[in-house]
Structures are given as C-alpha cells and as structure tokens.
C-alpha cells in the first residue's frame, strides 16, 4: 500500500511541476493546471468532462493548460511558453505547438523531428519521443490573457 501511495504522490508531483512552464519572460503572469479527461453521457451523447486528477491510472488522458496574462501597460511580442512533459506521461496528439525530442536543444513540428537509434542512424520522432512542448504567442496586449493546452496520457 505504501508503494502505491508513493507512486500516486510521485505522479501528482510530476503533474504539478509539468503544469508550470519551464521558461517564461516577465511581465507575463503564468498559471499551470492539470485536469483528467473523463467521458460522460449527456443527452445520449458522449461528452468530455474535466476533473481534478486526484487519482489517475495508466491510460488516463490528461489536459495540461498554461494560462497567461499581461499585467503590464505594454504589449509583449513573441512571448515563448515552454512546458516539459513529465516522465509519467506521453503526448497523445500534435497541436498548434512545436516540440523538442532532444531535451530542449531544438524545436519544430513533430513531422520534422528525428531521434537517434541504438543501431546507428535516425528514425522519425513520434509523440512518445516528445520531451517538451513550446508555443510562441505573437503579441499579448496590455491586460490581455489567454491559454495554451496540450493533451497527454499516463504511461
């Protein structure tokens, strides 16, 4: 039982850390959030709902969101938000962001990324290889806010 609690605690710590961006520039305020995705029946249709991740199991889908707000009196141009993926999760879909498969040394669309293989050479990167995701927000006006999101599942 102690081992199970440790794993849940360890995953919760990883999720909390992952919800905070790795890099940010002032004067933007950032806030990270993680929700577990649940499917519910409403009116005969399947609908996604989001709940606090108090208990997650392998295969659960998670929604990671970083909200931003420009608290200054000046517009901020080309604001970069970079989030590391926790080791306990794997990206489930490609979004409107760039990815890194080399520890943040380089970023690009997943289709342009490659990883080294033990036998030598490289192969096309997959969502399982993604270590970080990154967005560039072109402009954030004074007082403006928004958010960026990615989905991952528990390994």
Question: What this model shows, in words?
Answer:
- By secondary structure, the protein is mostly beta strands.
- It has one domain.
- Helix content is 12%, strand content 46%.
- Strands 2-1-3-10-5 form a 5-stranded antiparallel β-sheet. A 3-stranded antiparallel β-sheet has the order 4-9-6, with no helix packed on it.
Silhouette? flat
- How many whole angstroms does the radius of gyration measure? 17 Å
- Overall helicity: 10-25%
Task: Record the strand order, biggest sheet.
Answer: 2-1-3-10-5
In round numbers, the mean pLDDT is: 87
Cα distance, first to last residue?
20 Å
Strand-and-helix sequence, N→C?
A: HEEEEEEEEEE
Tally of extended strands?
Answer: 10
> What count of domains describes the coordinates?
1
* Poorly predicted sequence stretches spanning 5 or more consecutive residues: 1-10, 15-20
- How much beta, percentage-wise? over 45%
Explain briefly what this protein structure is.
By secondary structure, the protein is mainly beta.
Keywords:
155 residues, mainly beta, three-stranded antiparallel β-sheet, 1 helix, 10 strands
Walk me through the topology.
Elements: H1 2-19, E1 28-42, E2 45-51, E3 61-70, E4 76-84, E5 89-91, E6 98-100, E7 114-116, E8 122-124, E9 132-140, E10 145-154
Antiparallel strand pairs: 1-2, 1-3, 3-10, 4-9, 5-10, 6-9, 7-8
């Amino acid at each position: 039982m102690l081992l199970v609690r440790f794993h849940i605690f360890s995953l919760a710590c990883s999720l909390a850390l992952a919800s905070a961006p790795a890099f940010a520039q002032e004067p933007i305020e950032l806030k990270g959030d993680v929700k577990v995705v649940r499917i519910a029946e409403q009116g005969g249709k399947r609908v996604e709902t989001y709940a606090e991740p108090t208990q997650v199991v392998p295969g659960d889908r998670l929604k990671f969101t970083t909200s931003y707000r420009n608290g200054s009196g000046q517009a901020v141009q080309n604001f970069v938000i970079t989030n590391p993926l926790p080791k306990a999760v794997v990206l489930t879909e490609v979004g409107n962001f760039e990815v890194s498969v080399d520890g943040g040394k380089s970023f690009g669309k997943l289709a342009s990324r490659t990883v080294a293989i033990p036998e030598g050479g490289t192969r096309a990167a997959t969502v399982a290889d993604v270590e970080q995701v990154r967005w560039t927000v072109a402009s954030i006006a004074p007082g403006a806010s928004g958010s960026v999101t990615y989905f991952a599942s528990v390994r």
